[in-house]
Task: structure prediction
Amino acid sequence: MLPLNVMLALLAALTSLMCTVLLFRAFAANGVRLLLWSALCFVCLTVNNLLLFVDLAVFPDADLRVPRLAAALTGVLFLLYGFLREAE
Amino acid sequence: MIEFMSGAVTMGYLVAAGFFWRFWRQTADRLFLAFAVAFVLLALNQGLAQWIGAADERVGYTYLLRVLGFVLILAAIVDKNLRYGARTSGDGSRSRQ
Amino acid sequence: MEDAAFSDEFCRFLRAAVPTVDAAEVLLLLHREPERWWAAEEVLGALAPSVSLSGSAAAACLAVLLASGLIASGPDKRVQYRPGFGELDAHVRTLAQAYRERPVTLIRVIYALRDSKIQSFADAFRLKGK
Result:
């Protein structure tokens, strides 16, 4: 049984993965570009969450701050770009 | 470099939360309110991590704020689907799509 | 006027050319006097006091109408109602009718169309799909 903090990190990762899948699915269905940028954001947030999980569970001695921050920053930039362009 | 990225990410989350807040005001869909609060939590998570742990959210359990944010998003998704399932075609709050 | 008059093409027209209720007011004003060349201030003056737009909002409105092929722009920046295609004039007449007979529905539709991209984000999270 994994420790609680690891399971919580996994939960976060699974949630952001679900958001990613749902947003891509909706984009495929109706082509609304806002959904594409949002989906790309959640891909990055999922990577960010997975890296946190790895940081906690797999390599606790490693410091994955820089890749985590890079993923989060990329995700946020995708989202804001999408909002500014596509949502009046 | 880490401080710069951490600050940028925190600001980014807050701006995103602002957008979600506006979308909630425009559409009255609770999902956007949940996303707005979730992104504020993500910003808090990042800001706090920077403040007490040099952007490492493992320190002092700050990452729990992030988890809370995603749990909130999950709850919003569940809420949307439960309400949608309970409502049939008499949905007066949606105009034509 | 029935709901069916709000056809898909009409809604596409609204979505592209009439993003706000104020835009509808501007367009209908120009449509009422099609021979006249209007300056932006005259448009604002004619619409006041029921509609008040800032200078930049009015300019943005007119720019969208110009881009949609509904108005023509003259030498001294005056504009005149001049629909590029026949269907555009039909849509404007539908708009005028809707404004007279079903204003509440028209306003609801205009704002629903504005929000539709944002709403599609929320709708993406319906597991069973739309």
